[in-house]
Amino acid sequence: MEVLNRQEALVCNYEVLMVLQEEDQRHKRIKSTPYFKYPENVNTLKFEALHYLNDTACATQSAEQIATLKGRLVDYDLTKAEVLQIINLRPKKAVELHLIIEECEERFGMDDLEVMLEEIKSALPRADDDEDENEGEDEANDEDGGDMD
Amino acid sequence: MFVLAVLRDTLKIVPSEFTKSREEALKYEINRKYANRVLHDIGLCMMVHDILEIDEGYVQHSEGWIWVKVIFRLIVFRPFKDEILVGRIRSASPEGIQVSMGFFDDITISADQMPVGSEYNGTEGVWVWRYEGNELFMDLDEQVRFQVLDSAFLDVNPPRPKIGDVDSVPASHPPPYSLICTIAGDGLGLLTWW
User: Fold this and answer.
1) Residue B174 has what DSSP assignment?
2) Which superkingdom heads the taxonomic lineage of this protein's source (chain A) (predicted)?
């Protein structure tokens, strides 16, 4: 066994999820074959990895959405690693972008980050986006209620 | 958190698999050999991504299967330094906490990498962050966002029971691949905090 290239490319979680799902479907198809035992290590890894990835942002992504987002982020001059993390983590708040982007304060102002978050949200929409907005509204209403007292 | 590694290996296809396409049989063999195993200095191997080259294969005399030289790309879990990841708190002790991602468990956040002002609560068995008068508990199974500081590869031999002690359980051995991480910093720690 020889390693020809230790790191040829970085892959996003979405791509890994696709490979795992393909293998999972193949497994389901051949499950009923007699005298066939599916290797334990493959089964464990597939199960755990699918369980983890289905709980992350990549579960609702598609190739087109990711391509759209990459196109929108091109002007920001981010490194490959930063774009990859944005795709994988789908940040919703500025503090998350500060973690992902190196020297964030020097490269982007608060307004740039707000625009970036909006672009991420529109390119990779999720069903729970509205839930977060409603939570924000409820909190604002509570504050108003407190003031009136 | 995942990379593609290009590997070359010689794998065998046994007669019972001759009915499958060569690529399918090889993918099955690659997964069987590499899935869920740590390769030293490479990372945790997940699944084969695709096959780049297959040679014609040869049959060794006195054997009944085909040996094939394959060049393929493997999906490997190997986060880079400073990468941000999410996992669940698996266990806590005065030394720090252990975080798990399900398919990978050996993530350590030591006591000095906890947020400033946190301490271990012996009675509850969890860490607590004291921030601005609030006590924020880091309960087990809570999701946390952490940052990778370093990774450690250990070339381990399989554990051997001591000679003469047939019933002894081999002591737990250090993990072949572990991550050293931190949750001290804005945005890190429990997802519910930010």
Assistant:
1) P
2) Eukaryota
Verify that B93 and B177 share a domain, yes or no.
yes
Distance, in Å, from the CA atom of B118 to the CA atom of B97, rounded to the nearest integer, reads 12
From B31, B58, B77, give the residue that closes a domain.
Answer: B77
Alpha-carbon distance B136 to A145, whole Å? 26
Report the CATH number at residue B178. Answer: 2.40.50.140
Same domain? For B181 and B104 the reply is yes
| Interface predicted TM-score of the whole assembly (ipTM), two decimals | 0.86
Residue A143, pLDDT > 90, answer: no
Q: pTM value?
A: 0.87
Instruction: Return the residue in B1, B41, B90, B186 with the most chain A beta carbons within 10 A, the one to mutate for interface testing.
Output: B1
Reported as a pLDDT band with limits 50, 70 and 90, residue A139 is: very low
Whether pLDDT at B74 is above 70: yes
**Which range is least confidently modeled, A103-112, A130-139, B102-111?**
A130-139
User: Does one domain contain both B96 and B182?
Assistant: yes
One-letter amino acid for residue B40 of the chain: H
Instruction: Give me the domain span that covers residue B116.
Output: 84-193
Contact of A130 with A92, CB cutoff 8 Å: no
Total structural domains within chain B: 2
Q: Is the pLDDT of residue A83 over 80?
A: yes
**B179, B93: one domain:** yes
How many cross-chain Cβ pairs, A to B, lie less than 8 Å apart? 112
Question: What does pLDDT average to over chain B?
Answer: 89
* Residue of B41, B75, B147 lying closest to A11 (CB–CB): B75
- From B38, B55, B77, the end of a domain falls on B77
Nearest to B102 among A48, A85, A96 (CB): A48
Q: Which residue's structure tokens are 């708190």? A: B89
Query: Which of B4, B86, B187 lies nearest to residue A9, judging by beta carbons?
Result: B4
> What's the CATH code of the domain at B61?
3.30.1490.120
Say yes or no for a CB contact (<8 Å) between B9 and A1: yes
Which of A26-35, A97-106, B144-153 is predicted least confidently? Answer: A26-35
Indicate if B62 and B157 belong to the same structural domain.
Answer: no
CB A91 within 8 A of CB A121: no
